[in-house]
Amino acid sequence: MTDSDPVLRIAYLYPDLMNLYADRGNVTCLERRCAWRGLRTVVKRLEWNERLADPTDLYVIGGGQDRQQQLASKGLISHNADRILSDLGDGAAMLAVCGGYQLMAHLYRAADGSELPGLGVFDAETIHPGSDVPRCIGNVVCDWNESRIVGFENHGGRTYLGPDATPLAQVVRGHGNNAEDGTEGAVAGNAIGTYLHGSVLPKNPHLADQIIRTALARIAPDFELAPLDDAAEWAAHRAAMRAAGLR
Ligand code: GLN
What we know:
The structure is a single chain. The chain has a 6-stranded mixed sheet, with helices on both faces. Strands 6-5-7-10 form a 4-stranded mixed sheet. A 4-stranded antiparallel sheet has the order 9-8-11-12, with helices on one face. The protein has 5 helices and 14 strands. The model has no long low-confidence stretch (mean pLDDT about 95). Helix content is about 25%, strand content about 30%.
């Protein structure tokens, strides 16, 4: 490698607060899949009250419970909204999972009725109907881009997409955004929001590579992502399908 080789700059938002169901595995997966191709990465892990100074190619945020989301919402709105929105406008990529996904839309109304503002990356809002209403819990399989993605969900909030939001995927098994309309997650430009934990990327290598590819597009459009031996990853994918009752 030389100094002129591209470096993918990843920001991992609030790992201490937003890391349900091993969501940090998404960052490890992205780092490893880049390293295996000789692509360098730097990962900046941010505390909720830290300001991100440097431009970033790929944002990652995981899930968190309502209480953790309060601080995360504050951090996003007061310290990092401008940076994140301007990078995304410039073509940066994002993976936001569950509680993080909720905070990247317009609003999350928590179980106690309090309203947490989000960044509005996705035209969507999320309403938690209250702690006496069953949560959306279980294994998920979705149709995605001529293939399937798998994961695990556990959320009280129901996310409703607005007219400017595109669903990420269509639910085959599980609840997805709201257990009503069959949609799962959202896409806006190069940003992806999803309810899938797991962590989701290690068992969905095609999704992981799509995220890396879109993040790379503006800094190194000619960098070829060499194929990897994903036998273990696809075995995990098939195991998740079976856990959801599919073959
Ligand atoms: N607190 C949110 C909800 O229950 C998000 C939970 C999560 O990230 N798993 O809807």
